[in-house]
Design goal:
Chain lengths: ~450, ~290, ~325
């Protein structure tokens, strides 16, 4: 089996042979030596699949920055089990079909020992079944946040080292429950992350407060919509007091620019977004060379789980400083989680004493780990990290002029990880029955 | 539906329609005269938007971008016409699509090379920020500006084509290339001019659209399909058709979102299918060989 | 046309086909898993392109909505496998029957139109299918699509064939695609195929001769759509997850480019084009993130210098050579 032709041999040979061979790549019977040798000095190959282009490209870029930084640190300190790490990144173009092709290429061709990836839950759901049935590699997810990945679509190869949108939504409901507002509605992208994020929020909020009502008029534009103006005027017509928005990345930026023109943020009393106001939106909405921002003050956000100024611990401050020295900008949430992710691999591989997939999976179940900002534990049964989640609101900050447009997230408070995670019995029941989440009843599409 | 809601959604539809019309009119004009289906029109639109970002970033003025970015697009249009399109006039439609799709790929990666993959934003001139009262409702000033620009461009095209000497030459060249050549009209030059003007319109559409959204690499593909749909609904080569087509699609998008937003993705395709089934050559189209 | 085919295959046609088949059968013995997966996808796309070309190259109708039948085949098969029963044969049949029905309904309206208007109407219907797959989430899973489609065993009497392995699925694909390509090839050479070709050359004259042109066009449309459905049916268990992206118009554009690259007037042209297209995308995107620049430049150069397609070019040369002697 080792004598089979791999893609690289194939490309080399066919490159020389030129166009005469293009018709039948399969017809080449040229055999080459084995391309893969096992040994203690061989590097550990970790392949990453992120959205490096498209509407959420800034999130893919951040993942690449964070994981590269961690890999370099680890290699400088002697690697893992004496072996160096090599990283390779592939662009999924926010398309599950492309994601699957890239995952196959990373494992079957490049020979990745481990995978990590996915900014979009849609892509994650497309690739996760392949892990179990074809690739037999584990994959750590630092960003894609739909709970379905670790419930209905769960298999033993998938781990999420980041709080999912159930946890973030439950955290936001605790804050919204203290507000006097009763009429809530949503604008979110029409796919699993958009639904689950709102669903987790509103189901918790209505549990805590029986007087809160979810409006029937909601906005579910598709991912990567360019024009939100009619959705904006439609929501304003319903006169909501609170609006929750699961838009993120370039979508949120487009929405924010259009909403501002219609006076949207002045007309709703509370605006909350779990991921819309992450670092990338701050820099995209900065104007006048970063002296001002198009973003209004007083919008609530979880920044998808991490804002670089919080927590104000020595460890976090040092790390943010290192990151800024290296890249010239503060770390995005995904940079933080992708950085942590490489160290999770390190810890688990060292605990297992081997890079064999099954042993590393076992080592990782129930394992505690540290990211620069948070201490987390991977729940054994569903491979979901238990983590605190921050919530704060936007405020002008002249000292942050430049990259961030003189804005920051302020007065950040953390919800406790153990209180906001989805109860295990619910997760296991839904996994067994392959049921839709109960909060889908709060989603009304006009 | 009360009066305010109606006006609000009508104006939303009109803003949408006018950005579409500016792009679609260029596409339709190029087809009407050169008989070229130019997918790369979407790329020129995207370039217009990115140039708008660059010029406002460098010179701090949206007006500067509004004037110069479309001109740069027109210059790029001249290059495309001279070196890529001119060798292949008269080839089958499918090859035109293939060629201009090649240009789309090329331009997308060039934009990626120069501006990167992160989304960028452009903010309009301060004069145009905020809302003003229009027909009794508060409405964003910038959107009204886009509507005015769209109507102005419509008049401009009408004036140029029917009231000027150049316009007469263009119309002559579009109805019969050989005869026009025989009458002493420099047909290749007319073609270059029309292509450049179309590119200018695409660029202008890009600049006007830039403050309404975030800029990213997919702008071209999203836009070109919408523009094609509008042009086909109106009838290929017909400028009034492009205007009516844009208007219908804009209003359908706005009021459709209000009443049945679940089907938003299908609006423009349902409209196009209905029009084509009833009128196989579009609303104002003539039969093409 | 007749001439060019006879030159490419000639008297040795049988040996040529046998040799190609033997090589395809041996693929899993010589190539790495990745290349076998790649070859499987290539075979599926070859079928997609060849069936598309029955309408495009033979009948002269440019469809911009063939992703619709591809995705209906894929969703039909995927839904049956994951919700109803793990029977691969039944699932394929369901997918194929559905794409047949949808192709018939859409084709009925489209074949009345010509040229670009035909293309735009097929685009419109294709995108409506896309919207339905996206928005009918209770059935199709919405934007996330169908996740984790099983690849079941295939039992005939006592023998059980395992398709979950990479070579297993490759062989299944090879057999199905082989049968379909053979049928398409027979169709293209039948009297029906000849009428299609004369429709392409001059449809007014064909109508004048009293042939019900629309009926022939519709026939070609439905056959073409149904075989696209077969390609889609193979694709669903191959990918294990499918999302509405496979019904977007960019997917419809793929067989168009593949056919043009290979040559639309030669039966196997689109097969060559499909292989070349996938190969180029793979080789270039493996080396650089800016793969679109290269692909774009190749497309432009191709239109300017080689408008007959690769096989079209070769067969023209061969023909010219023979005429010369």
């Amino acid at each position: 089996m080792a004598k089979k032709i791999t893609r690289r041999d194939f490309l080399k040979v066919s490159g020389i042979a030129g166009t005469s061979l293009i018709g039948g790549p399969a017809l080449l019977g040229l055999s080459r030596g084995p391309t893969r040798a096992w040994g203690a000095t061989e590097p550990i190959k970790i392949g990453g699949i992120y959205s490096l282009s498209g509407v959420v490209a800034a999130w893919g870029r951040a993942a690449r920055m964070g994981s590269s930084m961690a890999a370099q640190e680890i290699n400088e300190a002697g690697g893992i089990l004496g072996r160096k790490i090599v990283l390779k990144f592939e662009d999924d173009s926010v398309n599950p079909e492309v994601g699957a092709r890239k995952a196959r290429r990373l494992v079957l061709d490049w020979g990745a020992d481990f995978l990590h990836g996915f900014n979009s839950s849609g892509v994650a759901l497309g690739v996760v079944p392949l892990l179990e049935e074809e690739l037999k590699r584990m994959c750590l997810i630092p960003c894609a946040a739909s709970p379905r990945i670790t419930t209905e679509a769960f298999n033993k190869y998938v781990f999420r080292v980041h709080p999912n949108c159930y946890q973030i939504g439950a955290g936001s409901a605790a804050i919204a429950a203290k507000m006097p507002y009763k009429k809530w509605t949503v604008i979110g992208p029409d796919y699993s992350y958009g639904w689950d994020s709102w669903g987790a929020f509103i189901s918790h909020l209505t549990q805590r407060r029986s007087d809160v009502e979810a409006l029937e008029i909601q906005a579910w534009p598709k991912f990567a919509t360019g024009d939100y103006s009619s959705y904006i005027t439609k929501l304003l017509g319903a006169k909501p007091e609170g609006v929750y928005s699961s838009l993120w990345g370039g979508d949120f930026v487009t929405f924010a620019k259009q909403a501002k023109r219609y006076g949207f943020f002045e007309n709703v009393s509370a605006f909350m977004t779990p991921a819309g106001l992450a670092l990338d939106s701050f820099s995209a909405l900065a104007i006048k060379r970063g002296k001002e921002s198009e973003m209004p003050e007083g919008l609530y956000t979880a920044a998808h789980g991490y804002w670089f100024e919080h927590p104000a611990t020595e460890r976090n401050k040092t790390w943010v400083g290192d990151f800024q020295d290296r890249y010239g900008e503060p770390p995005h949430i995904v940079a933080h989680d992708a950085y942590g992710l490489i160290y999770v691999y390190k810890k688990a591989i060292e605990k297992a004493g081997t890079t064999k997939t099954d042993a590393v999976i076992e080592a990782m179940e129930g394992m505690a780990f540290e990211t620069p900002g948070y201490s987390r534990v991977i729940r054994k049964e569903d491979h979901q990290a238990i983590s605190d989640v921050p919530w704060g609101y936007t405020k002008k900050a002249p000292e942050l002029a430049g990259f961030l447009g003189a804005m920051r997230v302020t007065e950040i408070k953390d919800s406790t990880g153990g209180e906001i995670i989805e109860p295990l019995e619910d997760v296991l029941e839904r996994r067994a029955k392959k049921e839709k989440p109960p909060w889908m009843k709060f989603i009304v599409k006009g | 539906m009360d009066y305010d809601t109606f006006v609000l959604f009508f104006l939303n539809g009109l803003t949408n329609a006018m950005t579409l019309f500016i792009i679609a009119s260029g596409l339709s004009l190029i087809f009407g005269v050169l008989r070229i289906l130019n997918l790369a029109h979407g790329s020129l639109f995207m370039l217009g938007a990115y140039f708008a970002f660059q010029f406002t970033h460098w010179f701090g003025s949206f007006w500067f971008a509004l004037i110069f970015a479309p001109l740069v697009c027109a210059a790029i249009g001249i290059i495309i016409e001279r070196f890529l399109v001119r060798p292949v006039y008269g080839i089958h439609i499918t090859f035109q699509l293939l060629l201009t799709f090649g240009i789309i790929l090329l331009v997308t990666d060039l934009v990626r090379l120069f501006w990167g993959v992160s989304y960028l934003t452009v903010s309009e001139s301060e004069v145009l920020q905020g809302a003003t009262s229009m027909l009794g409702v508060a409405y964003p000033k910038y959107n009204l500006f886009v509507i005015v620009m769209g109507i102005f461009i419509g008049f401009l095209i009408w004036f140029l084509l029917s009231k000027t000497r150049v316009g007469k030459m263009v119309r002559a060249a579009s109805s019969d290339r050989e005869v026009a050549g025989g009458l002493g009209i420099n047909v290749p030059r007319v073609y270059t001019l029309v292509f450049a003007f179309g590119a200018w319109l695409a660029g202008l559409g890009g600049v006007l659209a830039a403050p309404l959204r975030s800029l990213m690499l997919e702008l071209d593909v999203h836009t070109i399909v919408e523009a094609f749909v509008v042009v086909v609904i109106g009838g290929l080569g017909s400028i009034p058709g492009a205007f009516i087509g844009s208007f219908l699609l804009g209003q359908l998008n706005a009021f459709g979102t209000l009443y049945f937003s679940r089907y938003e993705m299908a609006f423009m395709y349902v409209l196009m299918a209905v029009v084509l089934i009833i009128r196989p050559h579009g609303l104002f189209g003539e039969r093409i060989a | 046309m007749e001439k060019s085919r006879s030159i490419i295959w000639g008297k040795n046609r049988f040996y040529g086909v046998a040799l190609a088949l033997l090589a395809l059968v041996l693929v899993p013995f010589f190539l790495s898993d990745f290349l076998v997966v790649f070859a499987t996808e290539m075979l599926i796309m070859v079928l997609f392109a060849l069936s598309f070309n029955l309408l495009f190259g033979y009948t002269g109708l440019l469809s911009f909505g063939h992703a619709a039948y591809f995705s209906i085949g894929a969703y039909g098969t995927g839904l049956f496998l994951s919700r109803v029963s793990p029977s691969l044969l039944l699932a394929f049949l369901i997918g194929i029957v559905f794409s047949f029905i949808v192709a018939f309904l859409i084709g009925y309206f489209c074949v009345r139109l010509d040229e670009i208007y035909f293309a735009m109407l097929t685009l419109a219907f294709g995108m409506m299918v896309h919207a339905i797959l996206w928005k009918w989430d209770s059935l199709t899973g919405g934007a996330d699509g169908l996740v984790g489609i099983p690849r079941p065993k295939f039992s005939i009497l006592l023998a059980t064939i395992e398709f979950s392995s990479i070579p297993g699925y490759y062989y299944l694909t090879l057999v199905v695609v082989g049968i379909c390509v053979f049928i398409l090839w027979r169709v293209s050479r039948s009297p029906f195929g000849l009428v299609l070709k004369s429709i392409r050359e001059n449809h007014e004259r064909v109508e004048f001769l009293g042939i019900a042109m629309r009926r022939y066009r519709l026939g070609a449309f439905v056959i073409s759509g149904t075989f696209c459905g077969v390609a889609g049916a193979l694709f669903a268990p191959f990918e294990r997850s499918i999302a509405p992206d496979i019904s977007f118009w960019t997917k419809s554009a793929e067989p168009v480019f593949m056919s043009l690259l290979g040559g639309t007037k030669v039966f196997f042209g689109p097969a060559v084009g499909a292989s070349l297209f996938m190969y180029l995308r793979e080789i270039i995107s493996g080396y650089t993130e800016l793969w679109m620049i290269y692909l774009g430049a190749i497309l432009i150069a191709f239109v300017i210098f080689l408008p007959g397609g690769i096989l079209g070019f070769i067969s023209d040369k061969l023909n010219a050579g023979r005429r010369g002697t």
